[in-house]
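User: Please predict the structure of the protein below. I'd like the answer in structure-token form so I can feed it into my own downstream comparison script.

Assistant: Understood. Taking the following sequence of 175 residues as input:
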Amino acid sequence: MYNPKRNLLFFAVVAFTSALSLYAQKASPAAKAEVQLAGKPITIAYSRPYMHGRKIVGGLVPYGQVWRTGADDATALKTPVDLEIGGVKVPAGSYTIYSLPSETGWKLIINKQTGQWGTEYDQAQDFARIDLVKTALATPLEQFTIEFVKKGADSADLILEWENTKLSVPVRATR
């Protein structure tokens, strides 16, 4: 039997549930980059913002200012083995990754402070600032991405890409 009140209630519940689902989705979804080096998992947990028609490098990510290297919570590096990142020795442990963009080059910042919101940066906690190699992407990339490209059992390239920019640095486990 057709009951208009029941149908209206059903559609209201469906609409409300759909709205909650959309609200619950993050604008910058969480992601993880992972690689096995020396048989151990090296991970970077981060959030992936979208361009949404915005100017990113030199705009949303301004030159000369430390950037959280993602969105939301601070980008977290965890390594159970000692690493060499771009020639800098990084002991096993947990760190936060930031970056410092400029028109001529970028720096990867390895920071000792962990667990903070992405914009809570304390330069006094910097462990190292490492040069990144910058190249242009052939086509724009809508969503920020961090990945490892494995080179050998103990080595990989760490890659950061967004908009028209690709940044890379070699990473090696130092047993």
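That's the full token string. The longest strand covers residues 126-152.
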